[in-house]
Design goal:
It is found in: Cell membrane; Membrane. This protein is mainly alpha-helical. It has a two-stranded antiparallel ribbon. The relative contact order is 0.14.
């Protein structure tokens, strides 16, 4: 019989050994968080208000921006609470819910990137059938499918956390709650919680990445068959933004995975820094990438700025 579970809150951890300068470390976090909210919020507003952007690619981009905002708003309160107020305590229930949203939103984002690769595949490989294939109802079903997959698939490993007894140390490794961090504190059989995430990662992140790579192989094959060099360049340019976002997302996922699996002897600050890169870099970069590489969004931003300057 396991000892009775303690209802004591978990303790979040900032940058170990750098507690004296946490308030200075919080400054770049404030800047990055503000930039993420401003950038993704602006993208959502532009896509919603500009009817020329009411196309499948931009609908998926709006979902991506929403997931990035969700990830930021999920992690931001506890991170800033630790760095600014030294508020390290978090109730167990709040911790599990935060963990649920962190992991589910990451799976949703992977699914959205997969849907966006399908959009580019249809646009380049079967352009004449683009409107008949990617109808509004089909785009909505794809987005809903990505959301359901993310929010449902992460329930099985999160639910046991609510009834596990926690008789070990209640100190977590980060300033937010991760499933792999919390389950190690349980005094229970966590075999399922160890195996299920590995299978889930293989069936989501890994499989999504393989399908995206395969779709771009077909896209490249189609583009290489185009006679005009100018047309080839134009076709590939429509994919640059998506490819960049895919690389940013999956490189950070792979980096964090390698650190957790093989970096046990790496300094704690390396683990912490990599986790922040994973949560902050994609939401920070995605609106920048699309603003720089997508002419339609550039024109919408300029129209928005000129409109406000006139008023």
């Amino acid at each position: 019989m396991w000892p009775n579970s303690s209802d004591a809150p978990f303790l979040l951890t900032g940058f170990l050994g750098l507690e004296m300068i946490h308030h200075w470390i919080s400054i770049p976090f404030f800047v990055i968080y503000f930039s993420i909210i401003l950038g993704n919020g602006t993208l959502l507003f532009i896509i919603w208000s500009d009817h020329s952007l009411h196309e499948p690619m931009y609908y998926f981009l709006a979902v991506l921006a929403s997931m990035d905002l969700g990830m930021t708003l999920t992690t931001m309160p506890t991170v800033l609470g630790v760095l600014v107020l030294n508020q390290r305590e978090i109730a167990q229930g709040a911790c599990f819910i935060q963990s649920y949203f962190i992991h589910s939103l990451a799976i949703v984002e992977s699914g959205v990137l997969l849907a966006m690769s399908y959009d580019r595949f249809v646009a380049i490989c079967t352009p004449l059938h683009y409107n008949s294939i990617l109808t509004n109802s089909r785009v909505m079903k794809m987005a809903l499918g990505a959301l359901l997959r993310g929010f449902v698939s992460i329930v099985p490993p999160i639910m046991p956390l609510f009834w596990f007894p926690y008789c070990h140390s209640h100190v977590l490794s980060h300033a937010f709650c991760l499933h792999q961090d919390v389950m190690k504190l349980a005094c229970a059989d966590i075999t399922f919680n160890l195996i299920y995430p590995v299978v889930l990662v293989a069936l989501t992140f890994f499989l999504d990445a393989l399908i995206i790579i395969f779709s771009y192989v077909l896209i490249l094959k189609t583009v290489m068959g185009i006679a005009s060099g100018e047309e080839r360049k134009k076709s590939l340019n429509t994919c640059v933004s998506h490819i960049s976002c895919v690389l940013v997302f999956y490189i950070t996922v792979i980096g964090l995975t390698f650190i957790h699996r093989f970096g046990k002897h790496a300094p704690h600050v390396v683990h912490i820094t990599m986790s922040y890169v994973y949560f902050l870099f994609p939401p920070f970069m995605n609106p920048i990438i699309y603003s720089i590489k997508t002419k339609q969004i550039q024109r919408s931003v300029l129209r928005l700025l000129s409109k406000h300057s006139r008023t």
